[in-house]
Amino acid sequence: MKRTGTLLLALFLGVCLAPHSGATVIPGNRTAPWQGNVGVPGGIPSRTTIYVNIVTDLGADPTGVVDCSGIIQNAINSCPAGQVVYIPPGRFRVGTQITLSNSKNNFTIRGAGMGLTTVFSASNNNLFSLGSSTWPPPSTWVSINSGATKGSNTITVADTTAFVVGAPMAIGPDPLPTWAHNLGGYPDTYQTIRAYCKIGSKTSTTVTFDPPCPFDFSGMNPMALIDSMSMLQGVGIESMTLDMSSSTGTYPIWFEQAWGCWAKDVEIKGAYSRQMLWTMAVRCEVRGCYTHDVQGTGPNHEGIIIGPGSWNLIEDNICNNGGAPPIVLQDGITPGNFTSCNVIGYNYVINTSPGFWDISFNHGSGSILNLAEGNVLEGFFEDDGYFGSSSYNTVFRNRIEGMLKLKHFSDYYNIVGNVLGDTWANAYETEVVSYCWSGISPIYELGFPNIGDCGYTGTFGPTTPPDYSGLPNTLDGCQQLDGNVEATILRHGNFDYFTNSTVWDPSITDHTIPNSLYYSSQPGWWPIGVVWPPIGPDRVPMVGQIPAEIRFLTQSTPTPAPTPTSTPTPTPTPTSTATPTHTPTPTPTPRPTPTATPIATATPTATPTPTPTPHGHGHGHGITSFNEVDS
After folding, report:
1. 353 close to 145: Cβ distance less than 8 angstroms
2. Residue-wise pLDDT tens digits, 532-561
3. How far is it, in rounded angstroms, from Cα 109 to Cα 99?
4. What is the pLDDT of residue 605?
5. Spatial distance between the Cα atoms of 460 and 178, rounded to a whole number of angstroms
6. DSSP classification of residue 600
7. pLDDT given for residue 301 in this prediction
8. Where are the beta strands (DSSP E) in 61-194?
């Protein structure tokens, strides 16, 4: 963006005078207020009152011979608020999908633990479909007169008659700013940047909501998208195995139009398509789960997927061949499939399908202000730009053994405190056309066209600010190298295996990397004796094991301690970005990993790059569940 001399002076003073709290590392306008706003409000409740045991009280068959669908459905329908439908040890046949309306709230479906309670699909059916959303998707936008600013919980509009207390709402600009862009035939007047929240109260002209607005949309003609349907609230699935290995059902779990719902300590094995869907989800949580051994790969075989949704937390999970990709936000551009302000934290991802990447913030368009922190990825991190832009996302203190790829329209990214690559790397970054066919393996790939392309035709930008308004909106209409991706990126304090050093942004004098961007101190669920934070060039060693990794490698119980209720984050202060300098660091080398070459990403629409798959942590383990190990 255009900077005046006064602004530059203010930024300089902010860098020089700010305390060492991490505040000067990432500008405040490039992050969301994740503190206390992600995951289930107040933490996942520990409910102790058992409403029914479906075997001893209702006569369900624990041997897997007789269909238990009706028994489980009836128990859920009649369960009082605050109580538990208990599925004890056994193997339970479900031949008809179990469903739930949005009017049934605040209860738990709980098993005895992974590998002890197994619910399996018997008729190529899905298992749990909880909640429902408005169809067709909401399309009523109302102009916001004031309040669409970062941190605000109240907006002012001309008339609130159409706003429904307890229903979701989205705030976003109309049309997209010039630094955002839609593909797939959708014009930039299609509002793909959306921050979702829940309406708490209203007056005749004001609407109060939670969580707060995460971005300053003033000056962008901010609008509110309203919905008339209430949200499913306070419903959780816990402590069981969902076995889809003999089914072609689409998914084992689908939460829809959900607020404060969760999946905890759930194993999903052998799913044919997606593992777990969260659509129109706000402040929901996936914790301590294990997804693995998917039946298929390629398009429509993702793992844990959110979209649309905001302020959700995917934390402390294991994904072992858990989808393509195993964790993804925003899988598409319609209907209303947009994400913002989510946190993907401390997950262990290995053995991803060849040609795919481990975590992605956007396959759709408009993804904004999401955070990936503390994850261990055996493969790539990639935002593929297939349906359009993503902006202001953060990759912080992760171990990423493969490349870090930000495709075209991925602007204003923050890449801070990571340990990147491995001994396969022979370049820091590259603009060589079709580099992947030329033996070049960079740490970063920035601005290349969508998905698996390692070639491009011509260049675009950089411009200040990025301006995509004149570009076509077709999927294949933007094949230039996008110079705005590198021009707007903030890279600071990342160790990489090409330079074998920690690379700092020379314009940022603060080299104190915060411990976390969404915790103010070590979280309560973190195991005693496990170093926190586990990853970063300032750690000794630079890469320690995370709890999910330890559980996978030791095959011990996958359930961590109860989660805390507060997830604070430091408050950053603005600073500018600049070309990185390669300054050697005395920090030790991370735990040894096998020599490997990186994956070149494949795509349903492009030819995959013919380079081998990298490998590292966890290879050689054939765990099929936490209580069963194959040979």
Report:
1. no
2. 999 999 999 999 999 999 999 997 544 544
3. 12
4. 33
5. 14
6. -
7. 74
8. 63-67, 84-86, 90-94, 98-100, 107-110, 117-121, 128-130, 140-143, 154-156, 168-173
As a whole number, mean pLDDT of residues 392-408 equals 98
For residue 162, tell me if it sits in a domain: yes
Selection from 98, 120, 96 nearest residue 109 by Cα: 98
Q: Is the distance from CB of 177 to CB of 220 less than 8 angstroms?
A: yes
Question: Is residue 535 situated within a structural domain?
Answer: no
| pLDDT for 556 | 53
Q: What tokens appear for 392 in the block?
A: 């202001």
Q: What is the pLDDT of residue 123?
A: 87
Contact 608, 601 (CB under 8 A): yes
What CATH number is given to the structural domain containing 162? Answer: 2.40.30
Among 25, 2, 3, CA closest to 513: 25
Alpha-carbon span 176 to 183, nearest angstrom: 12
Extract the tokens encoding 169. Answer: 């709402």
3-state secondary structure string, 381-435? EEECCCCECEECCEEECCEECCCEEECCCEECCEEECCEECCCCCCEEECCCCCH
- Predicted pLDDT at 592: 33
Q: Is residue 270 part of a domain?
A: no
| Lowest-confidence pick of 412-426, 516-530, 616-630 | 616-630
Q: Measured between alpha carbons, how far is 606 from 598 in angstroms, rounded to an integer? A: 18
136-145, 427-436, 565-574: least confident range: 565-574
Q: Residue holding tokens 């570009």?
A: 471
Q: For residue 335, what pLDDT band results from cuts at 50, 70 and 90?
A: low
Task: Average the pLDDT over 449-458 and give the result.
Answer: 87
pLDDT for residue 134: 84
Q: What is the DSSP letter of 629?
A: B
Phi-psi region of 554 (alpha: psi -120 to 50; beta: other; left: phi over 0): alpha
3-class secondary structure for 223-280? EEEECCCCCEECEEEEEEEEECCCCCCCCCEEEEEEECCEEEEEEEECCCCCCEEEEE
The candidate with the shortest Cα–Cα distance to 462, out of 490, 492, 431, 488, is 488
Short-list 605, 598, 608, CA closest to 404: 598
pTM above 0.90, yes or no: no
Cα-based distances in Å from 407 to 265, 383, 410, 548: 34, 6, 6, 29
In a domain, 594, yes or no: no
Distance of alpha carbon 285 from alpha carbon 294, whole angstroms: 22
The number of folded domains in the chain is 1
Decide: 461 and 469 in contact? Cβ < 8 Å.
no
Question: Which residues in 90-234 belong to E strands, given as ranges?
Answer: 90-94, 98-100, 107-110, 117-121, 128-130, 140-143, 154-156, 168-173, 195-202, 206-210, 222-226, 232-233
Domain of 163, in residue numbers: 140-226
In the chain, pLDDT over 90 holds for what percent of residues? 73
Q: End-to-end distance of the chain based on CA atoms, in angstroms?
A: 57
Give me 159's structure tokens.
């008339």
Per-chain mean pLDDT for the chain:
86
User: What type of residue is 8?
Assistant: L
pLDDT at 575 over 90: no
